Amino acid sequence: MNTGAATSLAEKLSQRFTAAPSSGDPGALASYEVDCVRPAAIVQPADASEVGEFLRFAAAEKLAVIPCGGRTKLGIGAPPARYDVALDLSRMNRILAYDPRDLTLGVEAGVGYRALSEVLAAERQFLPLAPPFADRATLGGILAADSTSPLRQAYGGPRDFVLGMEFVTGSGAQSKSGGRVVKNVTGYDLHKALIGSLGTLAVITRVNFKTFPVPPIRAIFVAEFADCAAAHAFSMEIAKSPLGPQMIEEVSPEAARLLSSLPEQGTGLASNLSKALDERVCSPFTERWSVVIVAAGHESVVERHARELRSLADRSKAVQFARDEAATEEPNQSALIAALCEFPRIAQQSSAAATIFRIAAIPTAMPALVESIRALAQRSEIPHATIARSSGLIYAALLPTSDDGATVEHLARASDEIFRVAAELGARARIESAPLALKRRVSVWGPPHEDFELMSRVKKVFDAAGVLSPGRFVGGI
Questions:
Q1: Which pLDDT score is estimated for 445?
Q2: CATH label, 3-87+464-476, candidates 3.30.450.40, 3.30.465.10, 2.60.40.10, 3.40.50.1980
Q3: pTM
Q4: Which of 170, 213, 400, 434 has the smallest CB count inside 10 Å?
């Protein structure tokens, strides 16, 4: 959109809708860029009815709209085909209903994760989301991106504890799915289709959650192994046991070094973690593969974990097994756990050309997949780091030291190979973070999906005019 047309659109929107105070400011617009595509204006609705009114206008005017909140995940997905207006939901930040006794919660999509966590903590409750960028992420964005959490091991993913949603389709129609209480059994679970849709189907305006009690005690254990296969076998033994820990994270030596050597200078969470990750927290990490286990519950439960995990570690030929005694001082706060949750963010900030794969795989295929990525990265002379979760997820980060044209060529070849290996092992890979030059060379969603036709039909039902986030999802949806 040329400068004159952009100015005209911004003025028209400011007359009809609630625009951001700095909607016409180039600096403000730059902070809403998606892969170097800048919107012409920013709209900040106050409620769902304003979202609906604006989207009806956008559909009539054939405007491309990208919903956002904390803007921590705008880099996920392909570059937008078009982008005219940023629909900023940050004003929609109210807690609409909270009943601690019934463990139910209803919030607007713009509520910040950290602010909500503080409200829940006052009632000794929490949501098992634990997303990266926790200090800035909003609930709507977390769900739209389907942010992963190490707590999935014990609590499942958002689809398991989101009770219902209210949302606005691309045509401006307000709708809802699910309910507001745990026992709701009516209607279709349409809201589950919105989780992970990256804002391409509808704009989430309200979310109803099931909340969980904060465990009285939490303890962290770290076992070290000679290689990934041994670490993964140990993780699988834990997963098959009756213990039921909160987290099981397999950490490569390279990822351990990355988490243990955050920059001393900087801003935001990385700087805070660099101070918090002192020698006591990081001492378990060596050049070996590490398995981090978090046990939570009453003291008897935690002590049972301590006994049985040590026994399992001995049988699994662990090189070392230790309990992080520092974590017991404040059982529900740990810099190590925060660093594991923030791994995608830390990896992204460690390299100008960071290329981070998120791979869903069956547990039996994970060691072979991790080893293939490690061998590929070594052949390509690209630094890398990996975290694997026994629930079936791998984060593999390629972290080159430069971002020049030759580096992008290496990354493109490596990415093609990772997608190929993942497909051969029955896994589904996608790139969550990458330099724009690589996105222009390689599809971040990998080869075409067999369910693309079905996804296209769903897109037309929710957003027939193609208003919402055009081009960003699989196959350019």
A1: 96
A2: 3.30.465.10
A3: 0.91
A4: 213
